[in-house]
From TrEMBL:
Pfam families cross-referenced by the UniProt entry: DUF378
Keyword 4Fe-4S attached: no
Organism: Butyricicoccus porcorum
Protein name: DUF378 domain-containing protein
Transmembrane spans: 6-29, 41-58
InterPro entries: DUF378 (IPR007211)
Keyword vocabulary terms for this entry: Membrane, Transmembrane, Transmembrane helix
PANTHER family per the UniProt record, alphabetical: MEMBRANE PROTEIN, MEMBRANE PROTEIN-RELATED
Amino acid sequence: MDKFVLTLVIIGAVNWGCIGLFGLDIVGALFGGQGAMISRIIYAVIGLAGLWALTFYSKLHSGSSDES
């Protein structure tokens, strides 16, 4: 599940990068615009993946005690 969530977070980051750099919303362009229902579902799923990814911080700290 964590790999899937990380993949979605990366897709979201790349999409935001393209919006910021080029004014191009890849998800919107592929799925019928920002207002299309499928686009909104994809945005919501990516947003939920971002929230899930917050749990990765606790996994980082519990995994090792060799912090720099």
